[in-house]
Design a protein that fits this description.
By secondary structure, the chain is of the alpha+beta class. Helices cover 22% and strands 38% of the residues.
């Protein structure tokens, strides 16, 4: 049996919901919106870091 995933809420998320959450599993980064937890995006740490750098520049 595998342990359940532990999701971490973004520090930029609001208290009323509208939260971005993430976790890791087997070297992958999983992201989801708290309002729709069944929809999960999967990426790599490198790709997520590139994305975050790109949006910080914008």
């Amino acid at each position: 049996m595998t342990a359940p995933l532990v999701w971490q809420k973004s520090t930029f998320s609001q208290e009323q919901g509208e939260c971005v959450e993430l976790t890791t599993e087997g070297g992958a980064v999983l992201l989801r919106e708290s309002d729709d937890p069944a929809t999960v995006l999967i990426t790599t740490p490198v790709a997520l870091a590139r994305f975050l750098r790109a949006i910080k520049v914008s």
